[in-house]
# Entry
Amino acid sequence: MLFFLDQHGCAKNQVDGELLIGILNAKGWTRTDIPDEAALIIINSCGFIESAKQESLEAVITARTAYPNARVLLAGCLSERYPEELSETLLEADAFFGNGDLSRFPELLEQMFPAEGTPTARPVLCPPICGVPSGERPELLSFPGSAYVKITEGCDNYCSFCAIPLIRGPLRSRTISDIADECESLVLRGVWEINLIGQDLGSFGLDGGISVPFGEKSPLAQLLARISTLSGDFRIRLLYIHPDNFPRDILPVMVADPRLLPYFDIPFQSGDTTVIHRMNRKGNPEDYLRLVEDIRGAFVESPYGKAVLRSTFLLGFPGETEKSFKKTVSFLTKLRCLWSGAFIWSREEGTASESFGRGASKKTAQKRLDALLEIQRTITPEELSFFVGQHLEVLVEELIPLSDEDRATAERTKMPPTQLALARAWFQAPDVDGSVVLQFDETTRDNRGKPLEPGSVVTAKILNVNGVDVEAVVL
Ligand code: SF4
# Structure
């Protein structure tokens, strides 16, 4: 039978989607990209903030209307967070599955599509939270050559604005050997870029799963040291480390192995100590700037010549005044991270900030968000100019089809047409950062000697900066 997977939310939820594909394949189901031919449509939802919830709800209603013959299943964080309410109110969905324990999914499948007998009417299965979902991922939903590896699930930080601990539960870490084995098998499958993910990589192993004898390396440093013993040509990127839990002892491990990319995604959220502490975070902008100084200092002599940063800011939080916003602006200006994003606080039930007073008005919060993104839009191209002239390996994501005009010019000039592709260099994470716009022609070969295709790795010269992208030519 055929199923269609409509994926929403973050990379952690994408891994869950890939695991669901593995479970369904093992049960003889096949994924289709054509929802019309699917017997089952899975909305793997996001329940993080208001706008994301709305998007997932609309996806269910749209699927119900457009594909009356299919069974529509709401899975993911929205289903995990509101199973009772939604099973009573979201009549467009035929079933609900929480993400506490994906290994129980076959039970719900059997209720929906019983081998014999009649299907259960609108089954709801939200298993108790346990372990970190892992297992077969026969299909990776990232661009070829890239994959996410989830090393933890859940979170114990309880930032006062965040509902994730309420959805994903307490922190759980996988074992170092389990993660290293998965990385090894992905590399053997031809994956070149592995992005390690979790709610907070800095908390990896702090749930007691990994022993840290006194003076020993932090669990994350132990993990990176273990991955560093793997053979092969691959790259490791760390996504999302809480600034208060940044284990500095990972830096020398990373400097020692250039396959561990000096790319750090550290969401500082605010540049005002009072607001940071109201977010139930311990740090302050001065400490954070010192952390960034240490990170940058560690990579000046490395083959990369620098470390790059991505950060995230939350605006309109209760207690954020015009004065504290100005501090966030000055913090961002000093930080000079290569990439940053921002979002507006929404009152999430069950979080500590639900009972905080009013946040900034929508208009003010939006004005502050626009101002912060405008500052980042000036910083990014300036920081990108560091790479102009460098020869770097880039991962090809998409080939841009030739236009008829290009073909006509090639015909007329008898010269192979210049082709374009979208690729990423080490300083660009998937889905969130700018791209490398790559020039090549039909004679170009990738680092394996093959014609370019998504997943190819090539060495390219960075020619110039174009907004948040860089332009390059394959060498
Ligand atoms: S670190 Fe804070 S913001 Fe991130 S998932 Fe945990 S509670 Fe949420």
The domain at 388-474 is CATH 2.40.50.140 (OB fold (Dihydrolipoamide Acetyltransferase, E2P)).
